[in-house]
UniProtKB/TrEMBL annotation, chains A, B, C:
Species name: Sedimentimonas flavescens
Coiled coil: none
Protein name: MaoC family dehydratase
Length: 344, 344, 344
C-alpha cells in the first residue's frame, strides 16, 4: 500500500468527525521578518514591540493573516488535497493574538456535507480551529470546499448544510485583552484618519501595485507549510502555470490597503471571502476597499470597521467588482469581507 | 478627500521642519537571517555572536547597512514619494550598533530647499536620524532629493543650501563602546590582511558577481518597508521594468567586497554616494574598491579605513568609473564613499 | 599582490593539514523560518518546540540539513573554490542537534591526496567537523573533490587514499541525548507509518514536485554563506546558466520525502551521496526513496532506518536510477544514502 497521503475524498467526511491536523508549528521573529519581506505590510502594531506595548499588548503579535495561513496550511492535506474548488469562508474570528514563541496547531470539525447532483463530487463544510501550546483557541473559521468522490457508486450521505451567519455580529468580535488605543500615535502609525473619519459606503483606491513573482508566492506558501502541488509544480497543470495560493493574494491586498487604511490595525473577523479569479505570476495586484459597516467595542479608544477588500489585476477598471450579471469581472482576484479594529 | 498618501511636494518643505516618520520597526534574528540570505554577507562580526563578544560587543549587531535601510525606508513616504531623483548623501554616521530586539524609528529635519530654475521642481535637503527604543541615536545622514512642485505657480522659497562636509572627519567617527580588536582572529574572519596592509590608492577587484532577480530585490526592499511603487509595479514605467532600490545595490556591492576586504568590519561613516546608473533585474553586479584614506582611532586594535566602493554591471571595463568628461561610465551603478573599522 | 582569495590548488593540500574555516555563524529562529520557506519541510520535530519537548529535546532543533549546509558552506572557499568536481561523501554523522542561539564553525583535516594521471588535477579528501560555541562537535563527514593544480610542473605527492566505510555502522549512530519516541503522536506528525511498517527493499514515490526558481536557490545558497561564483553569476558559464548548489537539491528532495516518510525525523548519518547530474532553474524536482536497511538503537521507542533518497527532474521514468551501463539516467539529480531515526 502506498505510504503517501492520498487525501480524503467526499465519502470520507462524516458530519461530527474531528480531524487533528499535522504539523504543529512554532513561530518566531523569523516568521515576522519573512512576512514583512513578502508583503508590503506596515501596520505599526505588528511592526513595533514598542507600539504594541503602548497599545496594551505585551509585544507585537505575528500578523493576523500569518496566523491564519499557519492554521489554514495545516488543513490542506486533510481537507483540500482532492478539492476541485475552494468555495467560501464564514464565521471567522481571531480570538487571541499569536506571539513569537507560540506553537500553533489546527483541528477541523466536519459540520456539513452535500453531494452534488452529478454524483461525482460534493461540498464539505468544516469549522477549523487554531490552538496554541496552552490549547487556547487563537482563531476559528468555517470553510467549504468541493471535493471529488473516490468511488462514484458510493451512496450520497444525508445532506447537512450548516446555517452560517452572513456577517459576524459586532457583539461577537473578540478584542484582545488589554487593547487600548487611548494613547495611539497616529503620526508613527502612518496616517491621521481615525474611525470617525470613515463613512459607510466610502471607497478607497489603495493606489499601489505589486507584480507577482513565482519565487515569492512559493516561498510564502511553503512558509505556511501549505504544500499543495498546484502551487509548486509547473508540470502539474496542462498550461504549465502554477496557481497562486489564494492566501498570498489575501495578504498582498491587505498589505497594500495600508495606504488609506493604515489604522485598520487588527483583523478580528472574516465574514466571507471569494477567490474570484485565479492569480498567476506576472499579474500585478492592486487593491481597493469599501467601508461596509462600523461598530463600537467596549475597549478604550477602539472601534470596529467592516471592510470589503477587493484585489484586482492589470486591466481592471477603477473599483472593478461584479458585472450586471452578478459575476465578478475577470480582473477581480479576491473579494474579502472582514472586521478590523481602529482607533476611534 | 482621498485617504491615501499623496506625498509631499517641493512647496510643502520648510527649512527647520521636523518630520517624525512612520512606522517603527522591531528587528530580530529574522532580519539578520534574511540579510544573510539576500546578500553574500560574511563579515564575522555580524555573523557570529561569539566573534562579536571577543570583539567587546554584547552580541552580533544587525548589519550596519540593514540598520541604514530600516531608517531610510521610513523616510520614503515623506521625503521621496514625489522625488524625481535621489541626488546625494553626506555626513552619514553610525552612532550605535543595532541589536536584535531593538525598535527603530526615524526623524528628518529639513535643512535646505532650493527651487530649480525651471520652476517645476526643487532640491530638498534633509538630515535624517535613526533612533532606538531608548531614543538613542543609532545613525544620522544627510540626503538631498529633487522633488516636483504640486503647484507650479507657488512662489520659490528663499534658497537655503547647507554647507556639507565632503568627508566625515576621522575624529568625528564613533567607535562603538567597548570595541576591541586586540584579540581579533584573522583566520576565523576569513582573511589575513590587516589595516597596515592596505595602502592609500590601492584598488581591489572583488572578483565575484551576482545576477539580480526580481523576487530578490523586491523581498529586500519590502523587508525595509520601502514601498515605493517603482520597485514593485511592472506596469508603472512605460518600459515595464522595475527599478531596483539603490540600497539593494549598496548592500550587494558591500557584501561582494568581503572578498578582499573581509576585515573592513563595521561601517561608521557615509561620506557620499551616487547611484550612477539604474539597475534592473538580469544585471550582474560586481564591485571594486579603492582605499581613499586611513586614520587611527582611540580604540584598542581598531583602525579606520576610507573606501570608495564602486558597483558595476556586465560589460564594465576593469575598475570602470568615470570617463574623461567626468561622467560615470554607463556600466557603473554605484559610487559610495565610506569609513570602516578594521583591525590594526 | 591581490587581496582576494585565490583558493587552494591541488599542490597546496598536505595530508594531516588542518584548516580552520571562516566565518562562524550564529543561527536563530530566522534561519529556521527561512528553511521552512525555502523547502516544503514539515517534520514535526523541527517545526514545533512542543513536539520536540514531548520527544525529550529542549526545543525544536535547526533542521539537520540546515546544520550541514552551514558547516559545509564554510569549507567552500578553502576546499572547493578551484574544484572541478565534487566527487563524494562518506562517514557523515550528526553528533549533536543545533538549536537557535548556537554558533557554528567548521574545521577540515586533509586525509588524502592523489594526483590524477593527467597531471593537471588531483583528488583531495577532507574530514570536516562542525563545532558549536562550546567546541562540541555537531557533525562530521568526509568529502572528496577534484581540484586543479596551479603549477602543472609541481611534483605529484605520495598518494594517500583513505579507507572509507561504505556505510556508517548502526552501532556508531549517535542518538541525541534524551531522545524518546515513546509518546510519539503520529497524528500530529502527519503519518501513521512507524519503523515496523517499512520493509527493506520497499520503494516510495514521494509524488510531489517543485519547479526551481533562480531567486530561491540563490537565497538558499547565500543563507549558508556558500558564495561560489557558479551559483550566482549568470555570466560565469558560457551557457549563461547558474548551476544550482547540490545541497539545495538535497534539502528539496528530503523535504519532498515527508510525503511517505513523515516519521523519518532525524538524519543521523550520511553514508554516501552523488550529485548525479546538474540542476538548473526551471527543473521540476521530484523524489523517491528506497529502504536499504533497518537497525535498532538503545533509545526508547527509536529505530534507525537506512534510506536511499533519489531526486529526479522532469522526464524521469518512475523510480529512475541507473542504466544497464551502471550510469545514472540523465534525469537523476541526486543519489543520497542516509540513516534516519524513526519511532518504532
Amino acid at each position: 500500500m502506498a505510504k503517501t497521503n492520498p487525501g480524503r475524498f467526499f465519502e470520507d467526511y462524516k458530519v461530527g468527525q474531528v480531524i487533528r491536523h499535522a504539523v504543529p508549528r512554532t513561530v518566531s521573529g523569523g516568521e515576522r521578518a519573512m512576512y514583512h519581506a513578502l508583503y508590503p505590510a506596515r501596520s505599526a502594531l505588528y511592526s513595533s514591540d514598542e507600539f504594541a506595548r503602548v497599545s496594551g499588548l505585551p509585544s507585537a503579535p505575528i500578523d493576523d493573516l500569518a496566523a491564519f495561513h499557519v492554521v489554514f496550511g495545516k488543513t490542506v492535506p486533510d481537507v483540500s488535497l482532492n478539492a476541485v474548488a475552494n468555495l467560501g469562508y464564514a464565521e471567522g474570528r481571531w480570538l487571541r493574538p499569536v506571539y513569537p514563541g507560540d506553537t500553533l496547531r489546527s483541528e477541523s470539525e466536519v459540520i456539513g456535507v452535500k453531494e452534488n447532483s452529478n454524483g461525482k463530487s460534493g461540498v464539505v463544510y468544516v469549522r477549523t480551529t487554531g490552538l496554541n501550546q496552552y490549547d487556547h483557541k487563537v482563531m476559528e473559521y468555517v470553510r467549504w470546499v468541493m471535493v471529488r468522490k473516490r468511488d462514484l457508486s458510493a451512496p450520497a450521505p444525508e445532506a447537512v448544510v450548516p446555517n452560517l451567519a452572513k456577517v459576524v455580529d459586532p457583539k461577537d468580535l473578540v478584542v484582545p485583552t488589554g487593547l487600548d488605543f487611548s494613547n495611539y500615535d497616529f503620526e508613527l502609525a502612518g496616517e491621521a484618519h481615525r474611525w470617525g473619519d470613515y463613512e459607510v459606503g466610502e471607497k478607497i483606491d489603495h493606489v499601489d501595485g505589486v507584480t507577482i513573482e513565482e519565487a515569492e508566492h512559493m516561498i510564502a506558501t511553503r512558509l505556511w507549510q501549505n504544500t499543495a502541488k498546484v502551487h509548486f509544480d509547473a508540470t502539474f497543470r496542462e498550461d504549465g502555470k502554477r496557481l497562486i495560493y489564494g492566501g498570498h493574494v489575501i495578504s498582498m491586498a491587505r498589505a497594500l490597503s495600508f495606504n488609506g487604511l493604515a489604522n485598520a490595525q487588527m483583523i478580528v473577523a472574516l465574514n466571507g471571502g471569494a477567490h474570484a479569479n485565479p492569480c498567476f505570476a506576472g499579474d500585478t495586484v492592486k487593491a481597493w476597499s469599501e467601508v461596509l459597516d462600523k461598530a463600537e467595542t467596549g475597549a478604550p479608544g477602539v472601534g470596529a470597521i467592516r471592510l470589503r477588500l477587493v484585489a484586482t489585476k492589470q486591466g481592471a477598471a477603477p473599483f472593478a467588482y461584479k458585472g450586471e450579471d452578478g459575476k465578478y469581472a475577470p480582473e477581480v482576484l479576491l473579494d474579502l469581507d472582514y472586521w478590523a479594529l481602529m482607533p476611534i
